[in-house]
Amino acid sequence: MPTKRSYGDACTIARALDVVGERWALLVVRELLLGPQRFSDVRRALPGAGTNLVTDRLRELEGHGVVARRKLPPPAASTVYELTEWGRELEPIVLALGAWGTRVPLPRPANLGATSVLLFLRGSARPRRAACYRVELDARVWTVRTEPGRLTVEPGEPAAPDATIRTDPPTLNALLDRPSDLDAALGDGRVQIDGDRKAVRRLLYERLLSA
Question: I need a surface site. Which of 41, 137, 146, 177 has the fewest CB within 10 A?
């Protein structure tokens, strides 16, 4: 059941936590930072949360005006959730919280989802030329576009990618840290690349150079 608990505190921090302070709420927001998502996508990205819990958090966030629901036109005709304009104002807060959390020890075992890796790539890359990538992570497809000094990510298929990358989030995360391991990952099948391999190497190394 959706919760209506409140701190009953006039402080604006407490009032903000009345809206996004429930367990899993900010992780639901995180999953919507890169664009609209279906319920099944959000649910799959949060394996530690049950279906009812994700449903409750989405309802609460929608009720507070942080998240909106809409139906895509045919042929998709599916319902997606997306951040409202007010909800999108949470992005720098969520990213700053992530930066603060780098000193917190990793849990064991730890899940690493596609959104987290792609947010890290988007925030750390400083590309030098334009390119388009089709990135397939755990059977989901993302469009990654670069232009000098900027990288964008959005869910869905690109029209004409320069390269396609198929892998899983932990492997991509490891390659962003150590691009020199790409050949080994290709050799043992952890990564598959179609198209311009030089563009993929450039994507990985330019992130490293920007760090």
Answer: 177
Predicted TM-score of the model (pTM)? 0.91
pLDDT at 199 over 60: yes
Q: What is the mean pLDDT of residues 50-66?
A: 96
Show the domain range for 167.
114-210
- Of the pLDDT bands very low, low, confident and very high (cuts 50, 70, 90), residue 208 is low
The answer to whether residues 125 and 204 belong to one domain is yes
Complete DSSP assignment for the chain: ----------SHHHHHHHHH-STTHHHHHHHHTTS-EEHHHHHHH-TTS-HHHHHHHHHHHHHTTSEEEEEPPTTT--EEEEE-HHHHTTHHHHHHHHHHGGGSPPPSS----HHHHHHHHHHH---SS-EEEEEEETTEEEEEEEETTEEEEEES--SS-SEEEEE-HHHHHHHHH-GGGHHHHHHTTS-EEEE-HHHHHHHHHHHHHH-
